[in-house]
Design goal:
The complex is a heterodimer. In chain A, 33% of the residues lie in helices and 15% in strands. Chain A is of the alpha+beta class. Chain A folds into 2 domains: 100 residues, Ubiquitin-like (UB roll) (Roll); 126 residues, Alpha-helical ferredoxin (Fumarate Reductase Iron-sulfur Protein, Chain B, domain 2), CATH 1.10.1060.10. In chain A, the strands form 2 sheets. Chain A has a 5-stranded mixed beta sheet, covered by helices on one side. Chain A has a two-stranded antiparallel sheet with strand order 6-7. The model of chain A has no long low-confidence stretch (mean pLDDT 97). In chain B, strand 18 and strand 19 form a beta hairpin. Chain B is globular. The N and C termini of chain B lie far apart (59 Å). The relative contact order of chain B is 0.17. The mean pLDDT of chain B is 97. The chains are: A alpha+beta, B alpha/beta. At the A-B interface, helix 1, helix 3 and helix 4 of A face helix 3, helix 4, helix 11 and helix 16 of B.
Chain lengths: 233, 597
């Protein structure tokens, strides 16, 4: 079938401002939107630039806006989005070229929430014992691939780039609710600051945007509750 | 003029091996990691089923059994001293990952959970053993995330989106690397005492692959161009279960959880090919069986695919026939919910890409190019070897898929790749830091970026009469048709000839993008050059080996020939083509015997 792919283009070396360019392509209903971008790049215009790697939704490189919604280009098929497809860079980040945005602020927020395991306890010779239920408690937030689809769909983040954003909170959640970790209070202190969870207005865009189907808004809600009540169950 | 930097240890590649190396190297030396992606985008994250270690969480297991299974899986081409080292280190290293916070699934007692995987057995009974420590079906994701998190904690220095294009290496040692910064197009020279290559594999050489777009063999191509050998390149693994037409990996863990392969007659055919462990035979054995089924017209509707069936009623039917039990001795019975809980990502892939629900429908699958057993030769300290006498290059290390230790020999067992990256990544990191502490910087050549500048100028000098995408597609097709699961002299000769022709046509390619900012057009062209080098060495090495061993199965030489071919290939590239030499396999305990499952 014939598809019209409209892409927001911007090359800082030649363009004063961004513009849209349309490409008409022959596609299969099962083609990924990433396949369409590749078709343009490989056979029509090699200068089209975007990030991609695994091409099956696990590396998190290719978060873009497809018909106005944050998705991974490799996890959306033509049959889901129809024959007129608009692809734009994710919002709230500086565009470096075409669909490539500057991710540095995103990684800065990530690093600010202690996104790593901390334990003050003596390491056993073998594994730490953790029950299947304790492991299940934080399973959902271990799935995050740091694609930034959630953070860049969040109106609070668009309004204030100092807000750490949903992705960083998801990372903190993964450790706060891990029974083996001992730094939950430090992370809650960070997230109780002005740039932390209270910036969240429970819009649910993040939950809708997550390609891993993480219940992002719920995770943020649990942390708000933990800060308010001190209850970490 | 290039921008100059200096670090004692440089790591090229930010996947599991690179991050493990970084954690260890940075404890003792000034270390930086260069990656063409961002570390969490690395292909380690796509690994699914588990990491092999004889923890014995679920039942009796021993590192010696793991060692022998790996030797046998390698079709006796793996070096037995290295395999023993890896399998013994496996146990403390997997516990080390747990101590770093890795969220493994748990047994009812709270220990690390383990599942069945192909080729892993109880050596007394010959039956499958639960050896794959796992986190659902996203074990690689958890390893990559955990190691990156620890690197953040320990403030490891990263240079993301830097494409390394040359390593300044000679017989005396290594002086650094040359890289292009993708954001700006600028050339950078990194002066160092030690270099660790952890840049991954090259599945994109083939048409149907489970591998990422970035898996283009850069590491091996760079060392070949510096006159170093590539070892055992003819051995490339085809994983039995890729999503039909797309190649996306469906973990062997599906069969570990009781899934079976079914042909067009509704027959579970693996019991004809591997009567003892059936669907859990080694990957080379299963992929060959699938090819034979399809060749004999038993593909689904006569086509080039078969079914992988993990519907609970099918799992339970064959589990009962096989007398399969749970660790407590009760019969193995599963529900749809349990399958979903153990294999959530697989269910998601099937629903997203095939519109198939594996709980109620079988999945169409075909063998997919998956893993390079060969690569840059190293010893089991991770030191790069430059000749058949195992002479090392001081300060140069390699680990993970880019390296050939060789622990995988002619065929890798599932779960041993995640093990390889953590054990040998750590080894490289440790040793590179020690080396750097006792060594001086070698002087840089007078014009260190000379070769890269020439390569990039050549890419832009072509008349544009050839397209990167066209040449890449032709290479992928000829390699998939003739240098894949089954091979014949005629087909491989065609492949060698075709790749030679493609290399000539490569001189005429055009790069559309004249700019400097994120010029991924130029990058793809350079990567194609790497893949053509790798494809040529692979096809020439394969054509020369007149026997069948592991993943190298020849219809014209169907038997393994230990008399003539129990040896590693060492391939060198020069102006005139490829020169092959050979070196012996290290055998400590197990003489080769016939390999049956």
């Amino acid at each position: 079938m014939e598809v019209e792919l409209r892409v927001r283009r911007y090359n800082p070396e030649v363009d004063q401002e961004a513009h849209y360019k349309s490409y008409s392509l022959e596609a299969e209903p099962n083609d990924q939107v990433l396949d369409l971008l590749n078709q343009v790049k490989w056979y029509q215009d090699g200068s089209l630039s975007y990030r991609r790697s695994c091409a099956h939704g696990v590396c998190g490189s290719d978060a873009v806006r497809i018909n106005g919604v944050n998705r991974l280009a490799c996890k959306v098929l033509v049959r889901e989005v129809g024959q007129k497809i608009t692809v734009e860079p994710i919002l709230g980040m500086r565009v470096e070229k075409d669909l490539i945005v500057d991710m540095d602020p995103f990684w800065e927020h990530y690093r600010s929430v202690m996104p790593y395991f901390v334990s003050q306890e003596q390491e056993p010779e073998r594994e730490r014992i953790q029950s299947a239920e304790q492991r299940e408690r934080f399973d959902d937030t271990t799935k995050c691939i740091l694609c930034a689809a959630c953070t860049t769909s969040c109106p609070s983040f668009w309004a204030d780039e100092d807000y750490v954003g949903p992705a960083a909170i998801v990372q903190a959640h993964r450790f706060i609710y891990d029974s083996r970790d001992t730094a939950a209070e430090d992370r809650l202190k960070i997230l109780a600051e002005q740039r932390g969870v209270w910036r969240c207005r429970t819009v649910f865009n993040c939950t809708v945007a997550c390609p891993r189907e993480i219940k992002v808004t719920q995770a943020i809600g649990e942390i708000k509750k933990a800060i308010a009540t001190g209850d970490l169950q | 003029m290039a921008i100059h930097h200096q670090h004692e240890v440089l790591i090229v590649g930010g996947g599991g091996a690179g991050l493990m190396a970084a954690l260890y190297a940075s404890r003792g030396a000034d270390t930086a990691v260069l990656t063409k992606l961002h570390p969490v985008r690395s292909h380690t994250g796509a690994a699914q089923g588990g990491v092999g270690a004889a923890l014995g969480s679920e039942e009796e297991d021993r590192p010696e059994w793991h060692t022998y299974d790996t030797v046998k899986g390698s079709d006796f081409l793996g070096d037995q001293d290295a395999i023993l080292f890896m399998c013994e280190e496996a146990v403390p290293t997997v516990y080390e990952l747990e101590h770093m916070g890795l969220p493994f699934n748990r047994t009812p007692e709270g220990k690390i959970a383990q599942r069945y995987f192909g080729g892993h057995t109880n050596n007394d009974s010959g039956k499958p053993v639960r050896r794959a420590a796992y986190a659902a079906d996203r074990t690689g994701h958890m390893i990559l995330q955990t190691l990156y998190q620890q690197c953040v904690k320990h403030e490891v220095a990263f240079l993301d989106e830097f494409q390394v294009m040359d390593v300044l290496v000679g017989d005396k040692g290594v002086a650094g690397v040359v890289a292009v910064e993708l954001a700006t197009g600028e050339l950078h020279v990194f002066h160092s005492k030690a270099v660790i290559f952890t840049s991954g594999g090259w599945g994109r050489v083939w048409e149907i692959t489970s591998n990422a777009h970035s898996y283009t063999g850069d590491g091996v191509a760079m060392t070949l161009r510096r006159g170093l050998p590539a070892e055992d390149m003819e051995f490339f693994q085809f994983h039995p279960t890729g999503i039909y037409k797309m190649g996306i990996l469906i973990t062997e863990g599906v069969r570990g959880e009781g899934g079976v392969l079914i042909n067009n007659e509704g027959e579970r055919f693996m019991d004809r090919y591997a009567p003892t462990i059936k669907d859990l035979a080694s990957r080379d054995v299963v992929s060959r069986a699938m090819y034979l089924e399809m060749r004999d017209g038993r593909g689904i509707d006569g086509g080039r695919y078969l079914y992988l069936d993990v519907r609970p009623e099918i799992v339970n039917k064959y589990a009962e026939m096989d007398g399969r039990t749970r660790p407590d001795g009760s019969p193995y019975v599963v529900t749809g919910e349990e399958i979903l809980a153990k294999l959530p990502d697989i269910i998601d892939f099937a629903r997203t890409y095939m519109a198939v629900d594996p709980i109620t429908q079988p999945m169409p699958v075909q063998p997919t190019a998956h893993y390079a057993m060969g690569g840059i030769p190293t010893n089991f300290y991770g030191e790069v070897i430059r000749d058949e006498q195992n002479a090392i290059i001081p300060g140069f290390y390699a680990a993970g898929e880019v390296a050939c230790v060789s622990v995988h020999g002619a065929n890798r067992l599932g779960t041993n790749s995640l093990l390889d990256i953590i054990v040998f990544g750590r080894e490289c990191g440790r040793r590179a830091a020690e080396y750097a502490n006792g060594a001086d910087y070698l002087p840089l050549p007078s014009d260190p970026e000379d070769m890269v500048r020439k390569q990039l100028a050549d890419l832009r000098a072509g008349d544009g009469s050839e397209k990167v995408a066209t040449l890449r597609r032709e290479m992928q097709e000829v390699m998939f048709d003739h240098v894949s699961v089954f091979r014949m002299e005629e087909g491989m000769s065609q492949a060698v000839e075709k790749v030679r022709e493609l290399k000539e046509r490569f001189l005429k390619i055009g790069v559309d993008d004249p700019g400097n900012t994120f010029n991924t057009d130029q990058l793809e062209a350079w990567e194609l050059g790497c893949m053509l080098d790798v494809a040529q060495v692979t096809a020439v090495s394969a054509l020369q080996r007149t026997e069948s061993r592991g993943a190298h199965a020849r219809e014209d030489y169907p038997k393994r020939n230990d008399q003539d071919w129990l040896k590693h290939t060492m391939a060198y590239q020069d102006e005139s083509g490829v020169t092959l030499r050979y070196k012996p396999v290290t055998i400590t305990k197990w003489q080769p015997i016939e390999r049956v499952y």
